[in-house]
Structure formats: structure tokens, C-alpha cells
Amino acid sequence: MYHERVVDQYSNPRNVGSFDKSDSNVRTGLVGSPACGDAMRLQIKVDEVSGKIVDACFKTFG
């Protein structure tokens, strides 16, 4: 059986979604191959003063 934390993360995923692309504090990375149907987009929001990551989200395809 899976650990309860694994089951919780699978049942209630966190930070799934996307940020507004027009936000100048958002950086986006894409891994995988959208042409093959398997890719993941990771976005981070960076504080413009401190340079620290203040939020993150992801979305998977395929």
C-alpha cells in the first residue's frame, strides 16, 4: 500500500494550474515533447525586489 502522504498528494494535488503569462514576474519552463503528447510546464513567480520564488505551479500534458 502507498504511504498516506502519497495518497493525499495524488487525491488532492497542490499548485496545479498556470499564472498569467503577461505577468513580468512569471518565468516558465517546459520539459518533454508536446508533439509526442507528454510534457510538463512549470511556472514560478519571482519577487522583483528579493529575487526569491514566492509561488509556483505546474501543469502536465499527456
UniProtKB/TrEMBL annotation:
Q: Which residues form the NIF system FeS cluster assembly NifU N-terminal domain?
A: 1-62
Coiled-coil stretches are none
Q: Name one GO molecular function term.
A: iron ion binding
> Which InterPro entries does the UniProt entry name for this protein?
NIF_FeS_clus_asmbl_NifU_N
Task: List, alphabetically, the Gene3D superfamilies matched.
Answer: 3.90.1010.10
The UniProt entry, under Pfam families, shows: NifU_N (PF01592)
**A GO biological process held by the record:** iron-sulfur cluster assembly
Give the protein name, as stated in the record: Iron-sulfur cluster assembly protein 1
